[in-house]
Task: structure prediction
Amino acid sequence: MAYHEGVRLAEPPATGTAETTDDLLERQRLRESSARSYPRRLPIALVEGRGTTVRDHQGREYLDCLAGAGALALGHRHPVVVQALREVLDEGTPLSTLDLPTPVRDRFVEQLFAVLPEPLRDGRLLFCGPTGADAVEAAVKLARTATGRSGLIAFGGAYHGMTQGTLALTGRKAVKEPLGALLPDVHHLPFPTAFRSPFGVDDGDGAAMAGRLVEWALTDDLSGIATPAAVIAEPVQGEGGVQPMPAAFAATLRRATSAAGTVLIADEVQTGLGRTGELWASEAIGLDPDVLVLSKAVGGGLPLAVIVHRGELDGWQPGAHAGTFRGQTLALAAGAATIREVVRGGMAQRAREAGRRLTEGLVAVAAGDPRVGHVRGRGLMVGAELVDPGVVDADGVPVPDGWLAGKVQAEMLRRGVIVEVGGTHDAVVRFLPPLVITDDEIDRVVDAFGGALRAVHAESGEEAER
Ligand SMILES: Cc1ncc(COP(=O)(O)O)c(C=O)c1O
Result:
């Protein structure tokens, strides 16, 4: 122990020696809040990460199909990211400059503007606090300021963050209900989900119906919703269970919001920068947003968040969205390097091909197992919804089986693959690997999924016999 003015400072423990994974998890359990989440379902402690692979304390390796919830487009410690970080440290650029310009910041901005969807290339960028949620907050404030209206339309199944404002926009009720009143004047409309349509119809019809509802809400003088400041949507809902937005619905959103003078915000925090097989998922479906919200991948795995918006919205006051860490130097360097590498390396195209291979593999598993109700996604944002084939809902669709998804997640971890769950009842097994995942690694992921399903089946059979 070292001592400093009477305060006892703990010596940092030497990694890889004294502790086991269980020690670290236990220390975390004792010290950190019960709000901690991932270690409950994924009880591992990581000491190393390279590419798609992470290694735990015991030397066990895992294929990381969670990848910082999609933040690690290039995987762990990609050489171009490490190099960019080293250069910044060697150059001596200040690490924190509020929003004072630096050459590193300038390079990031130039790099991002060079690859943005065309209509936003002459727009404006705002650095936000370094989380996706803060960027969504900024987008909402911008839309409210620009329109002088307060209302917001979001969608069932949406995920926009965990602040009180963004929670108001989010779909999952369990995280909202303990809090009471959140941001007022938020209205949720149904998202045209595949497989489990809120309208109880086929996917195509669902997109048309959801679009009609948006048009009705924005144009019917009896809809009960005052013309909103903004409509916010994810081009592929992630936490909502991997639900790609149909292009027809995107077209309706664009048309209806333009007609109503309502700002259209695309939340590409998770989908942005190649993840869905296109550089920008909103561009690929013709969403053409007024505001694009970006975080995760654009920071190269370090905390960074921005909004990019049409220039004409830029009428707010200096300091209208301030914060200490708006564009932190290391994240800017990592982000610029990542954007360059994703574009230069054709990583969006690679995500499309890899996503196809992954989806085909999962579909093949589903063909032999009725507990896999639906496989869907875009690029390397893929989900497999697990169901109880013996119980159907009023529309004849098998009910979601969150218990099974949790079991499969745990069994896949035992087989060395990290996945996440999401969607209704957390019944969707989510695959969000780095874009650098190889074909061989994809095949291992698919094998682990099939093997986990068989193992859970065998285990429940044994339990039933007992
Ligand atoms: C679409 C979307 N928006 C916003 C957020 C919130 O980002 P953060 O967790 O950095 O606040 C997330 C996080 O997963 C997200 O997926």
User: Anything to note?
Assistant: The chain has a mean pLDDT of 95. The chain has two domains: 14-77+347-465, 79-344. The first strand starts at residue 2 and ends at 4.
